[in-house]
Prior knowledge:
Strands 8, 9, 12, 13, 14, 15, 16 and 17 form an eight-stranded antiparallel sheet that branches. This protein has a five-stranded antiparallel sheet with strand order 1-2-3-7-6. The chain has helices spanning 62-77, 97-103, 128-137, 175-182, 184-207, 260-267, 282-300; strands at 25-27, 31-35, 39-44, 47-50, 53-58, 83-85, 107-111, 113-115, 118-125, 139-140, 143-144, 154-159, 162-163, 171-172, 210-222, 228-231, 240-244. 39% of the residues are buried. The chain is globular. With 307 residues, the chain is of the alpha+beta class. The two termini are 21 Å apart. The protein contains seven helices and 17 strands.
Amino acid sequence: MTAPEGEFSEMQLLETNLWPGVVPKRSGKVRDVYDLGDRLLLVATDRISAFDWILPGGIPDKGRILTGLSSFWFAHLGVPNHLLTDDVDVMGLDLSADERDALRGRTMLARKVRIVPFECVVRGYLAGSGWKEYRASGSVCGIPLPPGLLEGSPIGPFFTPATKAETGHDENVSFQVMADAVGAEVAGTLQSKSLDVYQRAADHASKAGLILADTKFEWGFDEGSGELLLADEVLTPDSSRYWARDEHRPGGPQPSFDKQFVRDWLETTGWDKSSPPPSMPDEVVAGTRRKYIEAYERLTGRAFPYE
Length: 307
């Protein structure tokens, strides 16, 4: 386990190295994933990425926030999902006491699934790549929208799938492209389930004073039973765009509860986005952490347990 030097070093987990040479591991931008044979161990680190780069350093407790929120949503929604347990003490893993402490709160033991090779994106508001596409063509993923909409305007909600990219950005595609790839029946099921989950989550977020502007889901088929399961993380600030409802003003970017705080700072640094990014100052790290924790506490209705 490694952590950077600095004010928050004792609180960060940037990398894990469990059972080296014994258990296969792959690392994404945030998660280290261990293949346990019939199950997966997903460890959410405190790494943070922006503009397709992983930044030096991280956001303390970010992995615990993502895992805690995902676990909350899996339980709240009651949708069949891949989570077996998020309690590291009952996973039956061969870990040292230090490893167990480091993994506590940020680890999920999950069923193995065959992931559908599309991000199932649902957009309820015009933002991000959808806003850019609308300005260029008047549509989003082939769905024509009325003229005169502003950035941040409510739409749909619409199901707008995207291809999954190993590096770089996902690419928005039409529903027909997805249907041609996975079959009309599977595509229709993914669309209806994604829209249903989005709407129920948006209703809950609204009661917490938040707007769920958009989100992306990953679905997969259980490798044993073939059941369709909601997988990976769900409805976190990394996979979703949350706005404060009382601050919503269409016509520009909205204050959000995600890593936009980091993106905004990077835009002021003169970084060229083609070379390694600069290190975040402590105030940016602390401000981003506060945003993530506020989203956690609003959505779950409980205090973040690692303060």
